[in-house]
Amino acid sequence: MAEIAELNKIASQVRRDIVRMVHAVSSGHPGGSLGCADLLTALYFNHLEHDPSFNMDGKGEDLFFLSNGHISPVWYSVLARSGYFPVAELATFRHINSRLQGHPATHEHLPGIRIASGSLGQGLSAATGVAQAKKLNGDDKMVYILMGDGELQEGQVWEAAMYAAHHKCDNVVAIVDWNGRQIDGDTKDVMSLGDLPAKWKAFGWHVMEMDGNDMSSVVSGLQAAKARSGSEQPTVILMRTEMGKGVDFMEGTHKWHGVAPNDEQLADALSQLEESQGDY
Amino acid sequence: MLSDYQSSGKKGTRDGFGDGLHEAAVKNPEVVGLCADLTGSLKMNKFKDAYPDRFFQVGIAEANMMSLAAGLAIGGKVPFTGTFANFSTGRVYDQIRQSIAYSDKNVKICASHAGLTLGEDGATHQILEDVGMMNMLPGMTVINTCDYHQTKAATLAIAEYEGPVYLRFGRPAWPMFMEDKPFVIGKAIHMNEGSDVTIVATGHMVWQSLEAARSLAKEGITVDLLNIHTIKPLDDEAILKSVGKTGCIVTAEEHQRNGGLGSCVANLLGSKLPTPQELVAVNDSFGESGKPTDLLDKYGLSVDDVIAAAKRAIARK
Asked: Mind listing the pLDDT tens digit for each residue in A117-146?
């Protein structure tokens, strides 16, 4: 398990990968990817008991699912850098004949991906299904599922929330990227989420909050969530992040949700991010 | 031969699903079932009572059920979802498309109360577009069974098949005539040898077509009759062989003309062997409340409609 300082170094490289990937193809979603770089780094390099040789059924492993599939760059970077596939393959992101589709898919058999995501609101249901299978299989490992906060506007999320509480799915940890922004603007303006902690609590979930851009907070938050296994109650982590975190001109706005930097902006971004592991 | 297929009484096709699911669960411990508050309607009680740990009640939340089933499949299970055909397809098309079909998950979408024969509940529930929607999904197998026995056999067959399947059946008690007949996914059953006209039928329309063929035989018209339980992949070979012999074809289905069996057969024949074809299907219309047989009559799916279509097809040769 990597220490906090080491995790921060890896997260910096992941952020470099993100901006380079979307720049190279002039499309993709850097904002949410940058915001969740610390979480995914902590999961794959510290928290998950996982096997990069990749088995689809994930028996005996902790599993991670990404429901807000548009932040695929952060997932691809972390998967590659933790050994699921060659780092050089990041250069194929969004190109024709690539395994790295714009939104994550299983169709091209990219190791690490267990279900397609992109059409929002489906991931919590799928992750809960996997968690149910784990219980039937006598497998005590956990299932982690990341969603965007805007994604919570999808009704299916709440169907799944109701289900997981009713069926006492205490091996599910849902994480909400609570950055307060979505494509058309701030969530409070587009479609207010209301009192989010109270909503999850009312649905029967154990609610935690954490700073998703502070590595110590992320690591300890994940450990605390995992410790809820056996509580007969699912856990949600409402994770505060900054969309665009780590690149100053991308922070504080929703505008970098789905826009790629130009050459000049890329250079500016990279100047702010340490190349700790070597660029692909 | 037509005389090989006599009714031994009536039972719902959905009863065949319920018995088949239970038997599949006995054979394979990985079989699990999910239901959206219609356990009795889907006849899933026998399975549920025998294997309560493998039954997942999801409540009235079909979207969640479909993605949940995909998750169970990831974990190595063989999930069977059960709800009405309308809520198994139209309501959850995106979930099926992304989480099941595109993700190539081994989920069996089992859909009851399809078509007009749902009866009195009316058009909100009488889906006539489901086969078309499922046909369009790459990799999806689409099956529409004709009686209790075939539905049971199909349920057992899809449990052993790896990949997403849409299994469509219905509500009413319906003649049983396929006992001990083999069921192979994608293989049409040649029910009668004839030379004047081919009839390709699926679901409840197989019985209607059998009755039509018996009536036509009395007029000296012989029907080459195919029971085409699997609409996708279509048994191209059986259909081409039959129309090569008869030179004309009728397709019969409890579904819209657009997108169903008739469209699939027309696609095949148009490219391989252009042949006069008549469609017995619902003509771009919603259904309504009524008794199943009255509805079949009103919407052009009666035995007489099949007979008339056969004569029209022959006249076009």
From this structure: 999 999 999 999 999 999 999 999 999 999
B306, B212 Cβ separation under 8 angstroms: yes
Query: Are B144 and B194 in a shared domain?
Result: no
Residues 6+ apart with CB under 8 A from B160: B28
Which residues make beta-bridge pairs with B277?
Answer: B249
Q: Are the Cβ atoms of A133 and B70 closer than 8 angstroms?
A: no
Rounded to whole angstroms, the Cα distance separating A88 from B18 reads 51
Q: Which residue of B has its CA nearest to A65?
A: B71
Please tell me the total count of domains within chain B: 2
Q: How much is the pLDDT for B134? A: 98
Q: Is B30 considered catalytic here?
A: no
B-proximal residues of A, 134-153, CB under 8 Å: 134, 136-137
Asked if B71 and A128 come within 8 Å (Cβ–Cβ), the reply is yes
Considering the segment(s) A4-271 as one domain, its CATH architecture is: 3-Layer(aba) Sandwich (3.40)
For testing contact with chain B, the best of A142, A156, A169 (most B CBs within 10 A):
A156
Cis peptide before B233 (omega within 30 of 0): yes
User: Residues B240, B310: one domain?
Assistant: yes
pLDDT category at B18 given cuts 50, 70, 90 is very high
CA A125 and chain centroid, separation:
16
Using CB atoms, pick whichever of B56, B74, B77 lies closest to residue A56: B74
Q: What is the ipTM of this complex?
A: 0.96
Provide the 8-state DSSP code for A160. Answer: H
The model scores a pTM over 0.90: yes
Is B315 an interface residue toward A (CB < 8 Å)?
no
Q: Is B175 helix (H, G, I), strand (E, B) or coil?
A: strand
- Cα distances (Å, whole numbers) of residue B216 to B106, B196, B226, B303: 42, 10, 15, 11
| pLDDT tens readout for residues B256-268 | 999 999 999 999 9
